[in-house]
Amino acid sequence: MVGGMTYERLGDSALDYFPCRYGTSKLLFRGPRRKLDGAYCAVLGGTETYGKFILQPYAALVEAATGITMVNFGCVNAGADVFVNDPAVIDACVKARATVVQVTGAHNTSNRFYAVHPRRNDRFLRASTLLKAIYREVDFTEFHFTRHMLSTLLTLSPERFAVVAEELQAAWVARMKLLLGKTEGRTVVVWMANHTPDEADEIGGLGHDPVLVNRDMIEAIRPYSTEVVEVVASIKARSAGLEGKVYSAMEEPAAQEVPGPLMHEEVAAALMPLVERMF
């Protein structure tokens, strides 16, 4: 915790994430680098798991409280694709005593309509012939990010977008089942958001993070995981704003968008008993 203080204008980034690599992976993870021997828990997820702008993300808090080694494989803007396609990460999960998998959005997953960058899943690469046929009026070369592209498609035609959303959701379920199967051991799927999976469909539009993931999708993957834990941010955590986040002046808009230290504490508290039971 940083006692409610924020730090600004400390160069390009106010926080040293000690970026590191594991094995043959081309991905940069949050350090310090850990030895992948003995008993440890692998933690997979997106920006929230990485702990962008956070001194101690939830994985570090669990480790501090339990003494269990938690290896943070969180990646900024990652979807399930990042991990499914990274043999070094999968190998680390197979050797781990347990694996925590954060629920990430369905928009950053390759599917029948478009492909995302294999390592930077928020990057839109190309549209399929099928998607171009559905949205003939769209020039897809103008898009670089999945969220921008999907927001545009939704605005143009909510009816046609419903077909796209259904495909993204099906692809997400398939990819999560594949990922959970590849880890081979005990797993905990963790939902961390400002709303429950039941409320996802009521929000409208692309919804909040995790984008387009709802109750039916969580239930579809539940049989493939040892545990599923749903952590919805408390009113206090939701209203904390920038409190306790560490960021430079240029990073302030991005820092507004991520969960703060209080939410990480709430996730850690929910995970601790589940992880401890697996050790």
Task: Give a quick set of tags describing it.
single chain; 279 residues; alpha/beta; Rossmann fold; five-stranded parallel sheet; two-stranded antiparallel ribbon; 12 helices; 7 strands; disordered N terminus
Task: Detail the topology: elements first, then pairings.
Layout: E1 40-44, H1 47-50, H2 58-66, E2 69-72, H3 80-84, H4 87-95, E3 98-102, E4 114-116, E5 124-127, H5 129-134, H6 146-156, H7 158-183, E6 186-193, H8 200-203, H9 215-221, E7 227-232, H10 235-238, H11 252-256, H12 261-277
Parallel strand pairs: 1-2, 1-3, 3-6, 6-7
Antiparallel strand pairs: 4-5
Helix pairs in contact: 2-12, 6-7, 7-9
Give the mean pLDDT.
94
Could you tell me how far the N terminus lies from the C terminus, measured between alpha carbons in angstroms? 27 Å
Output the radius of gyration: 18 Å
Number of beta-strand segments: 7
| CATH domain class of the domain at 40-107 and 186-277 | Alpha Beta
CATH architecture of the domain at 40-107 and 186-277: 3-Layer(aba) Sandwich
Counted by DSSP, the helix tally is 12
Beta-strand percentage range: 5-15%
Shape: globular
Q: CATH homologous superfamily of the domain at 40-107 and 186-277, by name?
A: SGNH hydrolase
Strand order of the largest sheet: 2-1-3-6-7
CATH fold node name of the domain at 40-107 and 186-277: Rossmann fold
Percent range for helical residues?
Answer: 25-40%
SS-derived structural category: alpha/beta
What is the string of SSEs from the N terminus onward?
EHHEHHEEEHHHEHHEHHH
User: Biggest β-sheet: count, sense, barrel?
Assistant: 5 strands, parallel
Uncertain spans: 1-11
